[in-house]
UniProtKB/TrEMBL annotation:
One of its GO terms (molecular function) is ATP binding. The keyword Transport does not apply. It is found in: Cytoplasm. Residues 34-311 form the Methionyl/Leucyl tRNA synthetase domain. Keywords: Aminoacyl-tRNA synthetase, ATP-binding, Cytoplasm, Ligase, Nucleotide-binding, Protein biosynthesis. InterPro entries: aa-tRNA-synth_I_CS (IPR001412), Met-tRNA_ligase_1 (IPR023458), Met-tRNA_synth (IPR014758), Methionyl/Leucyl_tRNA_Synth (IPR015413), MetRS_core (IPR033911), MetRS_Zn (IPR029038), Rossmann-like_a/b/a_fold (IPR014729). One of its GO terms (cellular component) is cytosol. NCBIfam families: metG (TIGR00398). GO terms for biological process: methionyl-tRNA aminoacylation. It comes from Hemiprocne comata. This is Methionine--tRNA ligase, cytoplasmic. The keyword Nucleotide-binding applies.
Amino acid sequence: IAAAVDAWACGAAALPKPWQPQKPVLPVEGMRNVLITSALPYVNNVPHLGNIIGCVLSADTFARYCRLRNWNTLYVCGTDEYGTATETKAVEEGLTPQEICDKYNALHADIYRWFDISFDYFGRTTTPHQTTIAQDIFQRLLARGFLLQDSVEQLQCEGCQRFLADRFVEGTCPFCSYREARGDQCDKCGKLINAVELKNPQCKLCRGVPVVKPTQHLFLDLPKLEEQLEAWLEQSWATGDWTANARYITRSWLRDGLKPRCITRDLKWGTPVPLDGFRDKVFYVWFDAPIGYLSITANYTEHWERWWKNPQQ
């Protein structure tokens, strides 16, 4: 408070000059460098006030604060564009998935511009950089033995001649009997669901009754990472600023033991899997989308690794 009183008494002329970063904004030796991302908004809708409040506004407020503190700040965001939700929206509107992404990316960008959200760069995940970086991460996991192959029972629509990804299936929730549960979770009771567990399943595309058939998928071998992850978490909990809720949820996962997590899907719209036997599949959006933060930064600057692989600054 005393410092604020002194600054007020001295007037605006005594304040430090605002930091003007070079373009593109890159880490600067000796400065506090801050990289800020918003959760990537999904591309299949028109954003409303709830999206802005729950997604980009808090990060925008923090970015403005950082710039006022004369910290070297980069704020990036973009639309999350792959996955079944995009394919479903494309079917609804009679457009291709790419046309849906182009349409809603432009709408998102216009709305955030109207609200004066102070992104340094607003991008998207359907780019060559996304493919290159996601496939590189995949190849590194594969080379280090962190991937498994396994057969999964999945619903196949014989009318559409395709395996149905989670969101292409609707049915009755096996837990609470809600009749419009999706193949990945129930929006009424909130429980995660395996699509084959649904009662009275229907294909969302043709309303046919799918059948259960086996298909091969790739899994991230999380049990192999559990010991390293637990050690890292203990250090991070001690030195970081985790919320009580985040600690509780993470501890519950570790307490129950991590399980292998499927990272591929039988879809057309997504980052292709670069491995023989799986080239007709794409990466599951929850493997692919977080990599969007890296690829969006890479679309902003070719020196993106100076932000993402530079813990010393």
